[in-house]
Amino acid sequence: MMKRVNFLQISMMIALLAGLTASYIPVYVMLPLNAITNNNEVNNPSQLLQQLQQLKSGGVDGVMTDVWWGIVEQTSQEYNWTAYQDLTTIVAKAGLKLKVIMSFHQCGGNVGDTCDITLPSWVLSIGDQNPSIYYNDREGDWDAEYLSSGVDHVPIFPNNRTAVNIYTDYMQSFHDNFGAVLGNTIVEVQIGMGPAGELRYPSYPSNRWSFPGVGEFQCYDDYLLADLKEYANSQGHSDWGLSGPDNAGTYNNAPSQTGFFSQNGGDNFQSPYGQFFLGWYAQRLIQHGDDILSAAHSIFSGSNVALAGKVSGIHWLYKDPSHAAELTAGYKNDQLSGYSPITDMFAKYGAYIDFTCLEMKDSEQPTSCLCGPEELVGQTMNNAKSSGIGYEGENALARYDNDAYGEMEYEATRVVPIKGLDYLRLSSTLLSNDNWQLFTQFVSNLHNA
Predict the structure, then answer these.
(1) Residue 63 half-sphere exposure, CB side, CA atoms within 13 Å?
(2) What sign has the CA pseudo-torsion 120, 108, 32, 361?
(3) Which of 11, 39, 143, 326 sits 20 to 30 Å CA-CA off 236?
(4) How many other CB atoms are found less than 10 A from the CB of residue 1?
(5) Nearest partner of 117 among 196, 62, 182, 199, judged by Cα
(6) In whole angstroms, what is the distance from residue 255 CA to residue 258 CA?
(7) Strand ranges for 69-155 from DSSP E
(8) CA–CA distance, 156 with 154 (Å, rounded to integer)
(9) Active site residue: 73, 188, 198, 326, which one?
(10) Are 167 and 79 in contact (CB under 8 A)?
């Protein structure tokens, strides 16, 4: 005779099975952008320790911080890591883990930037004489947010260093000075590869662009134009190598207001010329990332830390056939294949992809902006899975509400469990009573996703 199983036993069995199948997704909280001051000191260390201890009490696994090039290397090839060593000690004292970002960009000029940390002054002085070391748009406008990939291998910096030499030396110095805590307190090194630390072109600068404009191509510095010319000649189309598209409009145009992003024929994005240019533009960005990640892998391999890179969640105009805003940023997604070359490149070095806008829903966006954050996240997640790399996510904007938390919880296990959630960002607002209660429940939910 079959033995009767009571409700309590059934409940216990269900709970046991749920525990066996649940995924533990770690949660990291991004530190304020000015956690280290421009004077290379920890900003209010006693308050920071108290905040970190509160995070620990709420179940948070660790924190994430930018390691600003402009603060550390104020003189060429002289590195002052003192403040970051102090910060690492504070994080360890709070019982948390630390993710670090090799931040080779400026702070200031992007959404959410609350401080002004420039590139090193010795770099800016070169840029004053030669603005082609930065990305330029068609009008010749540029800003000193990040060095152009065109100078990756051009020895125009002190001691005949190239940009890739500079990034490599910086990462090597970090490795040498933090070796004792790599794989212990420091568990991940994310490599900045563009503006806002993202592998992209600065196609939507806040001082010239407004949402949801198409942005502009950023290939008009002398070095990238020379590269385009050489590539066009090698492909037997010398006339295509003189410049970028002359019909791509300006930053705040809609696709339909341009010739290049419309579907009206001619030299648009679908034409042989359009596909030639977009292919070169995207591949140039991927090569930039490959060169830097290759150096990072050589340096940090064997250090027992994860390697990662960040890709921007450009969700506006995703549902337009051209995917114009993605194209100007360097993501050739007009055929819905713009991210697999990136995830394949990351896979060469075992690097995770960190992707933004996990909190966003299509229904929250203006319909006229043709946004597709949910489709975009799903596409990149599937690309990462196909490439065999881990996926990390973060919210693009500060959110403290259950709708945002619920969407991030859904996305965290939508394809495969993500490797971690990087929450933007530590603040007194997050730690306040109601917001704190919602956040700690969110952390608990991800730990049992």
Answers:
(1) 30
(2) negative
(3) 326
(4) 3
(5) 196
(6) 6
(7) 97-103, 134-136, 142-147
(8) 6
(9) 198
(10) no
Whether residue 266 contacts residue 246, with contact meaning beta carbons closer than 8 Å, is answered with: no
Distance, CA of 261 to CA of 379 (rounded, Å): 22
Residue 42 carries which side chain, given as an amino acid letter?
A: V
Taking 90 as the threshold, does the pLDDT of residue 101 lie above it? yes
Cα–Cα dist 383/350, whole Å:
14
198 is catalytic: yes
pLDDT over 80 (residue 200): yes
Q: Which residues pair with 64 in a beta bridge?
A: 30, 99
The structure tokens listed for 377 are 């996240």
Do the Cβ atoms of 71 and 83 come closer than 8 Å? yes
The number of residues in the chain equals 449
Q: Which residues of 287-316 are buried (b: 16+ CB within 10 A; e: fewer)?
A: ebbbbbbebbeebbeeeebbbbbbbbbbbb
Distances, alpha carbon 25 to alpha carbons 406, 411, 418, in Å: 14, 12, 7
Cβ-based neighbour number of residue 136 at 10 Å: 24
| CA-based nearest residue to 305, from 169, 102, 58 | 102
Task: Retrieve residue 266's tokens.
Answer: 């001619």
Q: Quick one: CA dihedral 300, 396, 224, 78, positive or negative?
A: negative
Which tokens sit at 66?
């930018």
- For the chain, the farthest-separated pair of C-alpha atoms sits apart, in whole angstroms, at 91
What does pLDDT average to over the chain? 95
How would residue 388 be classed by pLDDT, with cut points 50, 70 and 90? very high
To the query of whether residue 394 is one of the catalytic residues in this protein, the response is yes
Residue tagged 């002190």 (tokens)? 158
What is the phi/psi pair of residue 154, to 5°?
-105, 120
Q: Which secondary structure element, helix H or strand E, spans residue 292, and what is its range?
A: helix 272-300
Q: What is the per-residue burial (b if ≥16 Cβ within 10 Å, else e) of 45-75?
A: eeebbebbebbbebebbbbbbbbbbbbbbee
More confident site: 9 or 335: 335
- Confidence (pTM): 0.94
Q: Does residue 20 register a pLDDT over 90?
A: no
Paired tokens of 22: 């649940």
For residue 177, with 0-12 CB atoms within 10 Å meaning exposed, 13-18 middle and 19 or more buried, which class applies? middle
**Rounded Cα–Cα distance for residues 347 and 353 (Å):** 9
Whether 233 and 266 have beta carbons less than 8 Å apart is answered as: no
Q: Which of 394, 407, 409, 411 is catalytic?
A: 394
